[in-house]
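User: I want to check something. If I give you two sequences, will you return the structure for each one separately, not as a complex?

Assistant: Yes, each is folded on its own. Here is the first sequence with its structure:
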Amino acid sequence: MASFRAAYLLRDGSETLLTGSEHAALSDDALRTEAYTEALRAGLIDADGWPALTEEAFRASLVIGLWTE
């Protein structure tokens, strides 16, 4: 198993990885930016909310930590 520092969403008991191992050395702010960009690209953030997240809910659900594949 490989582990690396990553940004992911933790929501309703499920985790969604937003950054890869290639981003592990980025600062927390840069990881947040990369995760936000990926969430927008994937359609996970929407100003109207459900089923997508609002930006506020995204920020509250974002975790930076160790990810194990």
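And separately, the second sequence with its own structure:
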Amino acid sequence: MEEKKKSKKGLIAIIIILVILVIVAIIYFALRYFNGNKTTGTTWGDTYFAYLTEGLEQENDEERQKYGLQSGVEKAELQFIETGEEEEPVMLMSYDKDDKSYTNIYYINDRNSVSSVLNQEYSDAEYLYNINNKEYNWYLHSESDSTDSYTNVSNIINNQNQSEPEYVLDKNNKTEVELEDGNTVELSEFDKTFIKPDIEDNSKQEISIVDYVADDIVKKINSLVSNYDKESDKINEDVQNKVDGLVQVAEEAKQDQENSNNTQEETTQTESSTFKVGNYTLHYGTYKGTDGQYADGRGVVKWNVTIKLNQDGTYTLTSSDQTMQKNNSGTFEVSTLQGKDVIELSGGGLYIVDANDTLTLYAGSGKSFTYQE
């Protein structure tokens, strides 16, 4: 009887142990299944999640850095964007280190795995309309006290050795523009290059780099995925009309600036191609006229004279009659003689300046040489 009781107790103990083992096994395999089947709801979201957790699980800093996970960085911010060129959304990771801001770019390549462009010195990203090429794109942005710098995300992906920003805009360079309606607006270099459409950017999520939890990361990526909308789908008619209006203002500003530059250039060219003689202005260049005098055996002889005044202070004089006046060249000077403003040629010849673009041989002679444009 005693042996039967012992046998029964032993059987119960074995059953209990087996039940415990089964429960433990169920829990183990359930957890294993759950952990191996975390999903963000999309294939591309799962691809980024798997890539991130693979990087976070690396044991040494050197390996983690290959994934853009820098030592000394505790937190980073994730965001998904549409580039237009990449079939799947691009993931941006922004973080700060040693008082500098950086952004990593991750994209899904043709092999359906993740490629990256790491440690770009940009603080954030902006979805902008480029006025010159008439396209919407995402740009990485950084700034200093005096400038804003922008580079197209797609161009960084396509040209991974690109180190200089595409646009460096002076914050302090502003232009006042009078619009067709009479109002005046002040436009910066940014306003004449880009327009930020009135749409809401896709949300961002902060993740822990040091004390990461896979469940937390998958939840945050899941949230980003579920709230992801293509920026191009947000550009409705109202948004585009506002952009078009701002483009018109920017184009007016550019035209005003171009007109101003042309006027300045024309003024500079005019100033550099003329010089003052007393109260009058002479152009550098060619002056033509007719000289004449009485010659024995020939009577009154007339001949054509061409005088060219050069900006370097030299001249050339050409005569159509070498017996009456020889060709010569040399330098010229501006001076005053008996109260008259004159041009004096070093090879001989004195010309009064008593009108703009006119050289007069002497007062009352009627012999003058006028500028030929």
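Because they were folded independently, the notes below concern the second chain alone. Residues 81 and 140 are 12 Å apart (CA to CA). The first strand starts at residue 75 and ends at 81.
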